[in-house]
């Protein structure tokens, strides 16, 4: 009898040990804290007279040109720019061949004051009804001071459409910011997913705030005029500055940067979604109310039901404040949003959540903490196959410098972390595979430091994989027989 009991307990122990071993393999307990730390340049803004901020010469010349997606599905673009001398026109001439601008669209002008700063004339113009997968040329302004640019529309919404996204956060306008931007521009990235904190103009006072928004607009034009940047707002966009009488949140940001929020039935430009190629991208606002029954909460609840993984297999969420972050900087700031939204991310099998805010790089394993319960005491994140990968790329290189102190020891959920500057790219290959890279700025070179294959969360299930196989087999057989 005793023997049997001993055998049983041994067996149980064995089962328990192998369970622990297995789950540690799953979580990949051995997370990496990279010791690489190098900030090449001091964290100071590029001086105002630097050529990166230079405005082209000419009367009423368009400058600070930037574009973003203008509708839900990628057949429209919003073109924005600033002029200094005259309030109009807000016209865009465009077409599909260079120097032939057969089409025109009329936008509208807005302007604002911030303390004693008066903005230039800010123009936003929607051009829609575009063809997919087509290069468009466009012209702003007239006569000697006209300027020409181009952009490429995405392929039509299709589950196997390939597409190359860049992810940048917390950019600012230092020499490190310039390095990040130039490295990104060397990549094949076609659209930037920007996770908030654009200009860091709010680090300045009085009329310099508006001025530094202008320099930032000029600084990023080299990329933003030619490909859409998908905007998410960060804390540096809030600009609550009562000491100079400025108390309307997001005033500069909302005048300057538009989003196609109405197309996704949102009631605010701060949260919205777009579909592009094979991706459904949801943009959330960390600094707008999101608790149960608020507009953002109600919108997200509805929007998640509209996601169709058969059409757009890739479900990507952008937000400013990371939900999982093991850096001392902003530690646990994302906890409130985690408590509200995490269970939805699991239920809808979000592929990846990109955030910024923390000026370092970090990637998590697939984990969740939806069992958290203040009564029972359940409180640890656990491996969860349905969970997204959480990636923090607040490492664009702004004035505030790096967040160099990670918490010790590295938590089980943290797969890779490093305090240096860089950007990420996500290259979607088809409905099942995407290739992800984090590229560190390293002595002026772009170095791919953390990379992996991201497997789609929806199409990874066995049933769907079998269905996919059958579908492909049928189409292959079909091709052979015709
Ligand atoms: C905006 O521009 C118009 C036209 O020049 C001008 O009359 C108005 O005062 C400006 N408003 C602000 C808030 O700067
Ligand atoms: C939390 O734990 C308590 C006590 O174990 C349990 O009664 C309750 O159902 C749990 N709540 C949730 C939402 O799981
Ligand atoms: C998707 O792309 C990956 C990597 O290029 C490839 O291995 C895989 O077979 C592709 N899957 C389908 C369904 O085409
Ligand atoms: Fe931030």
Question: What do these coordinates show?
Answer:
This protein has 482 residues and is α+β, with helices and mostly antiparallel strands. The chain has one domain: Metallo-dependent phosphatases (Purple Acid Phosphatase, chain A, domain 2), CATH 3.60.21.10. It has 7 helices and 26 strands. The chain has helices at residues 2-27, 175-186, 207-224, 251-256, 295-306, 335-347, 462-481; strands spanning 32-33, 63-69, 77-83, 91-95, 103-106, 108-110, 113-114, 117-118, 121-127, 135-140, 147-152, 163-168, 191-194, 229-231, 272-276, 279-283, 314-318, 352-355, 361-364, 367-368, 382-383, 389-393, 414-418, 422-428, 433-442, 445-455. The protein has an 8-stranded mixed sheet with strand order 1-23-19-22-18-17-16-15, with helices on one face. A hairpin with a 2-residue loop joins strand 25 (433-442) and strand 26 (445-455). It is globular and about 65 Å long. Residues 1-28 and 477-482 have low confidence and may be disordered. The structure holds 2-acetamido-2-deoxy-beta-D-glucopyranose (3 copies) and fe (ii) ion.
């Amino acid at each position: 009898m005793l023997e049997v009991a001993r055998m049983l307990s041994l067996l149980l122990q064995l089962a328990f040990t192998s369970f622990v071993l297995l789950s540690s393999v799953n979580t990949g307990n051995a997370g990496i804290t990279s010791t690489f730390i190098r900030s090449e340049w001091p964290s100071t803004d590029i001086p105002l007279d630097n050529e990166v901020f230079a405005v082209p010469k000419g009367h009423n010349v368009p400058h600070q040109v930037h574009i973003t997606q203008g509708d839900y599905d990628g057949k429209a673009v919003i073109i924005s720019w600033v002029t200094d001398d005259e309030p109009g026109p807000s016209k865009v001439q465009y077409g599909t061949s260079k120097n032939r601008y057969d089409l025109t669209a009329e936008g509208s002008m807005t302007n604002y004051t911030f303390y004693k700063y008066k903005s230039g004339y800010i123009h936003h113009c929607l051009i829609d009804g575009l063809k997919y997968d087509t290069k468009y040329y466009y012209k702003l302004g007239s006569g000697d001071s006209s300027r020409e640019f181009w952009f490429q529309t995405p392929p039509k919404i299709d589950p196997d459409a390939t597409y190359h996204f860049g992810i940048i956060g917390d950019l600012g306008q230092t020499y490190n910011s310039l390095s990040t931007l130039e490295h990104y521009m060397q990549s094949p990235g076609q659209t930037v997913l920007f996770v908030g904190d654009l200009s860091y103009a709010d680090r300045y006072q009085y009329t310099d705030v508006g001025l530094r928004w202008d320099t930032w607009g000029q600084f990023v034009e080299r990329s933003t005029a030619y490909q859409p940047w998908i905007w998410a707002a960060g804390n540096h966009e809030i600009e609550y500055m009562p000491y100079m009488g400025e108390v309307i949140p997001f005033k500069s940001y909302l005048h300057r940067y538009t989003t196609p929020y109405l197309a996704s039935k949102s009631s605010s430009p701060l949260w919205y979604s777009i579909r592009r190629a094979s991706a459904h991208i949801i943009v959330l606002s960390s600094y707008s109310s999101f608790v149960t029954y608020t507009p953002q909460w109600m919108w997200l609840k509805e929007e998640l039901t509209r996601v169709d993984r058969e059409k757009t297999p890739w479900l990507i969420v952008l937000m400013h404040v990371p939900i999982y972050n093991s850096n001392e900087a902003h530690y646990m700031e994302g906890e409130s949003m985690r408590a509200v939204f995490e269970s939805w991310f699991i239920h809808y099998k979000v592929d990846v959540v990109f955030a910024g805010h923390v000026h370092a790089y970090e990637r998590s394993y697939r984990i969740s903490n939806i069992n958290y319960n203040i009564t029972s005491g359940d409180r640890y994140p656990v491996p969860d196959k349905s969970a997204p990968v959480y990636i923090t790329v607040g490492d664009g290189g702004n004035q505030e410098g790096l967040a160099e102190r990670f918490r010790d020891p590295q938590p089980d959920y943290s797969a890779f972390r490093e305090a240096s500057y860089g950007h990420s790219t996500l290259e979607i290959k088809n409905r099942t595979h995407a290739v992800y890279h984090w590229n560190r700025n390293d002595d002026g070179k772009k170095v791919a430091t953390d990379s992996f294959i991201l497997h789609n969360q929806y199409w990874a299930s066995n049933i769907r994989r079998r269905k996919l196989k059958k579908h492909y087999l049928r189409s292959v057989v079909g091709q052979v027989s015709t």
